[in-house]
User: Fold this.
Amino acid sequence: MITISLKKRLTFEELVQANRQQILEDRIILDRIEENLERKAREVLAKRREA
Assistant:
């Protein structure tokens, strides 16, 4: 067994799994940001139409 991370003594497979998990979490955050931006853009457009 090759130990990659000396501080936590994680194997390569464990590091890959942790990285995949972080990517999934980041994707969820980015999706929420995108949804908020789209909602705000629709609100701005609606206000412009009313004016």
Summary: The first helix runs from residue 12 to 50. The radius of gyration is 21 Å. Helices lie at 12-50. The CA atoms of residues 45 and 51 lie 10 Å apart.
